[in-house]
Amino acid sequence: LEAFLGADAARVRFAMNAGMFDARGEPIGLYVENGSQQHRLNLANGPGNFHLKPNGVFWQEADGAVHVATTEAFAAREATPKYATQSGPMLVIDGALHPRFAPDGDSHYIRNGVGVRDAHTAYFVISRDEVSFGRFARFFRDGLNCRNALFLDGHVSSLWAPQLNRQDRGPALGPMVVVLNRAQGS
Description:
It contains three helices and 14 strands. It is mostly beta strands.
């Protein structure tokens, strides 16, 4: 990513993986970049975390408003967002924890996700230590007051945050969210 961004790499506020992908690095669910749909919404059933229903979508509208909702709720919309990524499972759904999560289940990984508090506030979070789904979801709901939050990934979760002097190394990633500081003069 740093090489791809070239001179813009100096503007990185943070970058992290943003949804699940296949062995080729392609998204397995909806992926929209700058208003262009790169991969379609995935409504299929299957194995793994992505298919632990309800799964969901994080998206940003052209006006900058941010949202997280279940895949079914997103599918009922008509407009194409500016940016979107589908992943799963949902962590928090309308203020309730995902119904299949134990308070502190057996599966513990470094995890990352996104939660939305309001149309102007999205929290991208990565755990420092291995954590269960239940504990991670409660952080979004109880700690950050997010009524909706989406799991982005676990085993490959990584972050590049220059201000934190953190640049995780790991396997190649598929979809990513990259937030840049505004260019001078904009």
